[in-house]
Amino acid sequence: MGTHGVYVWSSYGIFVISMLILFIQSVRSRTKQKMRILRRMRSLDKTQLSSALSDQNHAP
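The structure corresponding to this sequence follows.
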């Protein structure tokens, strides 16, 4: 590599750091999305449960 070793190894380092940052961001984004979906499902369950209970109260 001669005098180009500094550039080659710094390029490898920048690549590895970039991949780690992208991986961490992807994992965080996936986790946030899962939490949003779970919250949405819970709110729908509560809404459906309350509407089912109100329907039972109005039944003769």
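The radius of gyration is 26 Å.
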